[in-house]
Amino acid sequence: MKALSSCSAFFLAFSRRDHTILISKNKNNRCSRLIISRHYMTASATTTTIQAEDSEDERRTRWHNEFTVNFLGPPHALASLSVGDTTIDGQITRLSSSPDLFLIRNHISSQMDRDSIKTGAIDNGMKLAGTTKSDENTVRKNSYLTWMNPYELLLSEECNQKKGVTPILLALLRSARSTFVHSTMNDLFDRGEYNYCMAEDVQVAKYDIGGMYNTHHDGYGRFLTVLTYLNGVGGTYFPFANNTSTNGATNTITCQREAELAAEGAGNSGLLVVGIEGIEAYNIGDDDYSNQTLPNNNTNITSDYSTVQIQPGDAVAFYNYNADGEKEWKSLHESRSVPREKWIVTNWFRSESLTGSLSSLYKASLLDEDET
């Protein structure tokens, strides 16, 4: 039987008791899901009615919750960690609170599993990453990627050939979701309400020597990024992580261009992930290198930057949207030009409803459900 997730049909729709799910095939041959929920039709009217009936205190509480409860942020166990704190099991450490950024040790602990993912990606076909602003200004260089749907692999005719990587990708996706997605969003995912929370296909990327990816926001409703370093080569740079600058341009970022300009002059702040390539690859940590302009895109690195050392199988998780559904521009990041081959695997979790133009209505609906 052909797997549903393979999207062999160009368009498919089916109804559930409370919403209709539409599945279409996009140009990248990956499934996109659009859910038309009952909340879309009723949230506005419900909010208006309740505001009329609620007391003043209840209205204040509702207003406060709509601005502070963050379904797009970390679950409570992680949200309560201060910068530098580590979970009881010693596996997860908070690296930054703005943006929310965490380090995960041994996210893929097995060398065999990491090698299986790389082999599976090669077998799947690695394509040149073509993100560009113009022919002259390439955002991404010397990098290749592929997309892998573990559910499709599990049920497809090719499963026998790729069975080694399929359970690994499934376990990785489930671990990332259960650990880093808010409990309310997890419940919605389990109920099939993918407009609130869905997992994208897993992306595996390879950077050749000199490979890089300029400062960018993951966007597209991707509220959570979990990035695992397969061979332990880092180079991911977060210009605003742990940024204590009082510069207004840095602390009040409202658009992408403003964020990019602020990132270029972030000063002696930010955080760089350094792996087996060593800190010297980025001319950081030695006073002799301080404030020097470096080759390729390795600029503005000084000895005052924070660094975190990673090993093969470690990962970082960070959140890309605020509680109000607007982009968190401080989650901008880049891949510095690497001195050796680099392999990463990325899990993205997306919310169409809570990051769209009607995000406030959808959030109000969720808060209503929590109260009942």
Automatic annotation (TrEMBL):
Gene3D superfamilies documented for this protein: q2cbj1_9rhob like domain
Keywords of this entry: Dioxygenase, Iron, Metal-binding, Oxidoreductase
GO cellular component annotations of the record: endoplasmic reticulum
Pfam families, per the entry: 2OG-FeII_Oxy_3 (PF13640)
InterPro entries: Oxoglu/Fe-dep_dioxygenase_dom, P4HA-like, Pro_4_hyd_alph, Pro_4_hyd_alph_FE2OG_OXY
Cofactor(s) essential for the protein: L-ascorbate
Keyword Iron: yes
GO MF annotation terms: iron ion binding; L-ascorbic acid binding; procollagen-proline 4-dioxygenase activity
Domain of life of the organism encoding this protein: Eukaryota
Domain Fe2OG dioxygenase: from-to ranges: 198-351
PANTHER family referenced in this protein's UniProt entry, alphabetically: PROLYL 4-HYDROXYLASE ALPHA SUBUNIT (PTHR10869), PROLYL 4-HYDROXYLASE ALPHA SUBUNIT DOMAIN-CONTAINING PROTEIN (PTHR10869:SF236)
Protein name per UniProt: Fe2OG dioxygenase domain-containing protein
Provenance organism: Fragilariopsis cylindrus CCMP1102
Lineage: Eukaryota, Sar, Stramenopiles, Ochrophyta, Bacillariophyta
